[in-house]
Amino acid sequence: MPQEIERKFLVKGQYKSQAYAQSRIIQGYISSARGRTVRVRIRDGQGYLTIKGASDASGTSRYEWEKEIPLNEAEDLMKLCEPGIIDKTRYLVRSGKHIFEVDEFYGENEGLVVAEVELASEDEPFEKPDFIGQEVTGDVRYYNSQLMKHPYRYW
Questions:
Q1: Catalytic residue of the set 15, 20, 29, 106
Q2: What is the mean pLDDT of residues 116-126?
Q3: Continuous segment of H or E residues that includes residue 52
Q4: What is the SS3 assignment for 21?
Q5: Strand partners, 6
Q6: Is the pTM of this model over 0.70?
Q7: For tag attachment on the chain, is the N or C end more exposed, with fewer CB atoms within 10 Å?
């Protein structure tokens, strides 16, 4: 079963100058039920459908299944999504042998910037770039499916 193992951090300071790539992401949720989310994403003109299971106790690991789908299908599925949308730019930053995905949010989540790093195991060491701040792994408020329901602007 495919597992996603990642840690999430708030961002402090500059990261854009360190990015080697960036892309705009729009996503919605067909289901945002805790423990089983179904996400539709449009990224750089391509569609994706993702299903995620419940996180483990630490919030670091969970089941993830993702497939690329045609853009027109993703656009159609977006119409079935729950109210609210996630709009963000993702910046990719290398740090040692890892890549940090830094998400700068827009709309009702404007002002929030988080970074995630995917790992091969929960205890895998990694180099933190200087823009990495407080760890928020496992804090459900920072899950995109929750930001859709309870935007950062209203915290």
A1: 29
A2: 95
A3: strand 46-55
A4: strand
A5: 118
A6: yes
A7: N
The encoded tokens of residue 137 equal: 């792994």
Q: Is 20 designated active site?
A: no
- What are the residue boundaries of the structural domains of the chain, listed by start? 3-154
CA atoms of 133 and 135, how far apart (whole Å): 6
Residue 62's SS3 state is: strand
Report the C-alpha gap between 41 and 43 in whole angstroms.
6
Structure-block tokens of residue 13: 């300071």
d(CA 99, CA 92): 6
pLDDT of 3 above 90: no
In this structure, which CATH number among 3.30.428.10, 2.40.440.10, 2.40.320.10, 1.10.10.10 belongs to the domain 3-154? 2.40.320.10
Residue 38 phi/psi, 5° resolution? -125, 115
Q: Is the pLDDT of residue 1 over 80?
A: no
What is the identity of the amino acid at 10?
A: L
pLDDT in tens, 59-83: 889 999 999 999 999 999 999 999 9
